Amino acid sequence: MTKPPKYEVFEGKLTTRCRMKWEGTLLSAPGMLTLFIFLLLPIVGLIVLAFMQRGAYGTINWTPSVDNLKRLIGFSSFGWAPDNAVIVARSLILATVTTLICLLIAFPMSFWIAAHKKSTRALLLALVMVPSCTNLVIRTYAWMLVLGAQMPPTWIARAIGLIGETDSLYPGQFAVYIGMVSSMLPFAVLPLYTSVERLDWNIVEATRDLYASPLRSFCHGVLSQMKSGIVASIILTLVPSLGMYVVSDLLGGSKYMLIGNLIQQQFGSASDWPFGAMLGVILILASVLSLAVFQKVGGGRNYV
Amino acid sequence: MEQSPLSDADLHIRSICKSFGKKDVLRGIDLDVCNGEFVTLLGPSGCGKTTLLRIIGGFEKADSGEVLLGSEVISNRSPNKRPINTVFQSYALFPHLNVYENVAFGLRSRKVNEDEIDMRVKEMMKLSQITDLAEEFPETLSGGQKQRVALARALVNEPGILLLDEPLSALDANLRKSLQRELKVLQRKTSITFILVTHDQDEAIAVSDRILVMNHGRIEQSGTPEEVYEHPVSRFVATFIGEANILECKRIDNKSVEAMFGTLEVNRIPQWEAGGVAVRMEDIFVHDQKIEKPNVFPAHIQERIFRGDYWEFLMNLNGTVVNVMTDPDELYEVGSDIFLEFAPEYLQVLCD
To answer: Taking a C-beta distance cutoff of 8 angstroms, is the pair A247, A176 a contact?
Structure first.
């Protein structure tokens, strides 16, 4: 006697595990195929390209080497010149600091929003989101105007001695940070707000009941519950910040380059696709690495 | 072992009032709880019992009135400065800590030294029968296990008073019964004052030394389970605890009232012109023939319901229907005519 197949009920249908597996594969095939063709293949291509050479007149010389990697670290044909490494480091720092600032602003902000009554909360959240509806370039141009030499923020900064009498806030590092934080803030606020709204205040009360000081109560009662929200917030800010180049391009002035600008340059004016590909691979690695780290910290939920 | 300095003290609550917006939740509560007493606040949802508990715990501030522990006013102290611990309705275990760390939390907050923490936590876990769960995280526990952990987490601090906010309401009936027994045993063993909030009258009767029946932000009656059950003072108490027949009566004189079906002799003096007299369904006696005793009336059996350990009858007394309970062997046929005796000592003249 053969063993009868084990039937299970799934979404009101009688089915077997094997059948479910086949149906699942079939149903997800279009998506998988799209991802394969438009994501996985290009990435493989990019990785291959990264280990090639620039030929004459922007062509590609198909001999594998690690020259691009060396160049990135700073070994150029004229000796030690870590310009590229500086740009990569600057990008990483900018992204990290932007994320930190966003988090510091978003944390109290999400509590503040959650403390309002329901209708007001929706309005405040909409206000947080509204700027994101405008094109990033237009928003950045707006900052150029606001931070320009003839505008009040610059006068004030000059008056209190933050910058020299002839300097202005734009262009420069300060303008880049303002632009970055303002464009990333909504992505930090939303996940944090969601986790504030979901807080089980009984747990906070339990910490108070069990003699916890305000700080201990905050760590064990509030932060512990918001861990996944904080991780989501970090990932949603950090990863796009890493690749952002419009903001630094427009607000940073000619000397302020980021990895994004560098990549754009390689594929554009420099016509050095292999080096551009290497920079791209590095960027992807940085993003995936940060995702993996924070996923581990966040525990449970997957973001990759 | 370290003892809270105030653990020997009694709890006094003085004219506590509290309102949320326009709704008066507590309207002048006065209450004294002796050290080591098991007191239950019993009432329907919205009667203010949980709010009162939260005021004692320090999670809510009263609009007026005072909470005293011994002679000390504690109304203005924050929860972490009160020698009072709470078992929350949803247990509120810390999801990021394992059972051991959950139980140890209060001791760690108070910076008790590591050896003593370990000793007390292990001892408490043994007493609560959760030693095997030490490494588990709350999400893997069953309802009953969570309940034990929550109890252990509170009791390990040796509080002066333990507050329990409907701790058993989320459990199924059998488990609830066995945990009620354990709760009673635990309370006697630790001799910590327990203040339990519940809407379950059986639970209140089973575990308490004293029941406070609350309704609309006031304490309607306070007494031992027997007193509250046998001598309810108001309609609300009579119907909320157990089942009672309420007979609508008019006052004749100090010793008798006029019910719909005849004149009843009563032992207590009615304070009204028209009001209620309560009688428990097991306190009405059924007779085949008319007997020479006060308060015997002819009745007609309208319906018979088997309840397992007893029979319930719907008896019609000239238009008034009363529920009567008899032993399983006392069986009468539907439609037959019998006599009901309302013995005066079992008639409770209510205040309303």
So the answer is: yes
CA dist., res. B102 & res. B105, Å (int): 5
Structure token digits, residue B131? 């030693």
pLDDT tens per residue, range A134-171: 888 899 899 888 888 788 888 888 888 777 777 777 78
Residue B107 has pLDDT above 70, yes or no: yes
Check whether B158 has a pLDDT greater than 50. Answer: yes
Average pLDDT over residues B161-178: 89
User: pTM here?
Assistant: 0.78
Closest C-alpha to B123, from B92, B158, B98: B158
Q: Do B80 and A205 touch (CB under 8 A)?
A: no
Taking every pair of C-alpha atoms in chain B, what is the biggest distance, in angstroms?
A: 76
- What is the number of residues in chain B? 352
Nearest CA among A242, A128, A141 for reference residue A188:
A128
Q: What is the C-alpha separation between A172 and A195, in angstroms, rounded?
A: 35
Q: Which residue of A has its CA nearest to B153?
A: A210
- Choice between B242 and A112, residue whose per-residue pLDDT is larger: A112
Cα gap B330→B79, rounded to integer Å: 56
Two tokens at A249?
Answer: 């391009």
Cβ atoms within 10 Å, residue A274: 24
Q: In the structure encoding, which two tokens stand for residue A262, read together?
A: 């560098």
Altogether, the residues listed in chain A come to a count of 304
Instruction: Give the B window 82-121 contacts with A, CB below 8 Å.
Output: 84-86, 88-90, 92-97, 105-106, 109-110
Q: Are B287 and B296 a contacting pair, CB within 8 Å?
A: yes
Average pLDDT over residues B34-56: 92
ipTM for this prediction = 0.81
Q: Give the single-character DSSP code of B133.
A: G
Residue for token pair 């990549």: A263
Both tokens assigned to A86: 């500086």
* Cα distances (Å, whole numbers) of residue B327 to A261, B230, B296: 91, 19, 20
| DSSP code, position A5 | P
Q: Which of B59, B97, B109 sits opposite A216 (nearest CB)?
A: B109
In whole angstroms, give the CA distance from residue B84 to residue B72.
14
Cα–Cα distance for residue pair A263/A269, rounded to 1 Å:
10
State whether the Cα torsion A10-A13-A15-A19 is positive or negative: negative
Of A169, A177, A173, which is closest to residue A95 (Cα–Cα)?
Answer: A177
Picking from A201, A202, A203, A211 by the largest number of B CB atoms within 10 A of its own CB, the best residue to mutate is A211
Whether A1 has a pLDDT exceeding 60, the answer reads no
Is A178:A170 a contact under the CB 8 Å cutoff?
A: no
pLDDT digits (tens, 9 = 90+) for A209-228: 999 999 999 999 999 999 88
DSSP A268: T
- How distant, in Å, are the alpha carbons of A96, A100, A234, A297 from that of A188? 13, 10, 7, 17
With 0-12 / 13-18 / 19 or more C-beta atoms within 10 angstroms meaning exposed / middle / buried, residue B266 is buried
Residue A20, SS3?
Answer: helix
**Do residues B28 and B214 lie in contact, with contact meaning Cβ atoms separated by under 8 Å?**
no
Token pair 């308490």 is found at: B208
B153 to A210: CB separation less than 8 angstroms, yes or no:
yes
